[in-house]
Design a protein that fits this description.
Layout: H1 2-12, H2 17-40, E1 50-51, H3 52-60, E2 92-95, E3 106-107, H4 109-119, E4 126-130, E5 140-141, E6 145-151, E7 154-159, H5 168-210, H6 223-256, H7 258-268, H8 273-301, E8 307-310, H9 311-324, E9 329-331, E10 338-341, H10 343-361, E11 364-371, E12 374-380, H11 415-425, E13 429-434, E14 439-446
Parallel strand pairs: 9-11
Antiparallel strand pairs: 1-5, 2-7, 3-4, 4-6, 6-7, 8-10, 11-12, 12-14, 13-14
Length: about 450
């Protein structure tokens, strides 16, 4: 009943869709409000049409303020206001030579003829360049245009203003959009962080559970996150049950092989001397493999309580014991590193790596360093190294670096598998790679908080 109640409670919990929906609605409302503010703050800039009569009157110098006496001297650059309505004023300027068409303008013979008639002069004294030349007969002009009237020693010129790249209206619009982006980015970032944080924690927990370690406490969150956490918990329980069943089966097979192997050893004693020695060696190898298999299954099944321990002291003690036993092992001292774990299991982990280095690389050098909240331990040898393509395969059970299966040059193929299993149970990882002179076995373990 409690599980049913929990599921009902989860269904009543907040959904991840609610904050996303609210963020979308607020974004739409804010964008609409800003659009209204921009729209009613003033019309956007546009090309104000100029009539042909207005252009002609400006070329004549008529309109308010009234034109003064006489003709301005050449190049004086006198300006006059446009007589008609509009946001800006038409201006005329006297230039000593005929003006040239600007970019986008072409000769407009129709406008030239009509302007000459409006001014009462010959078309030979008129120049007209517009963007709309030849399209239609127009009474007003927009865009870029240049009109000129040859009078006396110079030319009176009227040109359209070159619009700025960014007008005041454009600047206001861009500032309003920037304010909207800033106002929406802060809650959007907060909502995104709140939504993704439990998912990141859940992904990290699922990754740790997939490697065989105990499942940590799963994060709480929205209804969808809780449903996903429940699915991860169920999946982890199924995987753990499967692993336990496989380990129990392997242990049972290894144990049951002991009895027929003992009977076989008794019968081997009746063989001739040469055959008996070879058969006894094979039986000893089988017994060693069975013992290693039982140890592997026992380590995989037994879960001991972790405690704080000094990894530097553990490595120093292990290397000293192996060196006293005649093993070519040296220790490169490092900083003090406190980890949480099972000292016996960790001792076996590094013992397997050191024995593997001595077996295939003639010697072993052990060192460590701390980085990013972890302790990185390495075991280096002077052997020929490993095939990088086979590095991961060597951590599989019963896979040996020596393909000849010779007991004199290799073990049972469980040493690296046991080492990785122990490292995984401690929240770390074990890898193999090639160094400058041989193979390098690395173990990364998290430091105790």
């Amino acid at each position: 009943m409690s599980s049913v109640a929990d599921r009902r409670g989860d269904r009543r919990g907040a959904s991840i869709a609610r904050p996303i929906f609210l963020l979308v609605i607020v974004s739409v409302l804010l964008a609409t409000a800003i659009s209204f503010v921009v729209t009613f703050s003033g019309p956007p800039p546009f090309d104000f049409p100029r009539s042909l009569r207005s252009i002609a009157m400006t070329l004549k110098g008529k309109g308010p303020p009234p034109f003064g006496h006489g003709v301005p001297p050449p190049g004086a650059g006198q300006a006059f206001e446009d007589h008609g309505p509009g946001p800006g004023a038409l201006r005329r300027r006297q230039e000593p030579s005929a003006p040239m068409a600007r970019s986008g303008e072409v000769a407009d013979p129709t406008a030239r003829r009509r302007l000459a008639a409006e001014l009462g002069v010959s078309p030979a004294d008129i120049l007209a360049f517009t963007e709309t030349a030849g399209k239609t007969e127009r009474d007003a002009f927009v865009g870029s245009y240049t009109f000129a009237w040859h009078e006396g020693a110079g030319w009176w010129v009227v040109r359209s203003d070159v619009p700025p790249y960014l007008t005041r209206w454009h600047v206001r619009t861009l500032l309003a959009m920037l304010v909207a982006i800033l106002l929406l980015s802060l809650p959007a970032w907060s909502i995104a962080r709140a939504l993704t944080r439990p998912l990141r924690l859940l992904a990290a927990a699922a990754d740790q559970a997939g490697t065989g370690a105990a499942l940590p406490a799963l994060p709480d969150g929205s209804r969808e996150v809780r449903d996903l956490a429940r699915a991860v918990t169920t999946m982890h329980a199924r995987l753990a049950h499967y692993a336990e069943a496989r380990t129990a089966m392997l242990a049972g097979i290894a144990h049951d092989l002991g009895t027929p192997l003992s009977r076989l050893a008794f019968r081997v004693e009746q063989l001739p001397e040469g055959a008996r020695v070879r058969a006894a060696a094979d039986i000893d190898e089988m017994r060693a493999m069975i013992a290693a298999t039982l140890a592997f299954t026992r380590d995989d099944a037994v879960q001991t309580e972790a405690s704080r321990l000094d990894l530097a002291s553990l490595l120093d003690s292990l290397v000293q014991d192996m060196a006293d036993a005649g093993q070519p092992v040296t220790l490169m001292p490092g900083p003090r590193a406190i980890v949480r774990g099972d000292s016996a299991a960790l001792r076996r982990l590094f013992s397997n790596l050191i024995e593997n280095a001595v077996r295939y690389g003639e010697c072993a050098r052990v060192g460590w360093e701390m980085e990013d909240g972890n302790v990185n331990v390495w075991v280096v040898d002077d052997g020929p190294g490993i095939d990088p393509a086979q590095a991961e395969r060597l951590f599989q059970p019963f896979v040996r670096g020596d393909p000849s299966r010779n007991r004199a040059t290799g073990g049972t193929g469980l040493g690296l598998a046991i080492a990785r299993s122990i490292a995984t149970r401690h929240g770390g990882a074990a890898t193999l790679e090639n160094g400058t002179g041989g193979a390098v076995a690395r173990v990364v373990l998290p430091l105790a908080g």
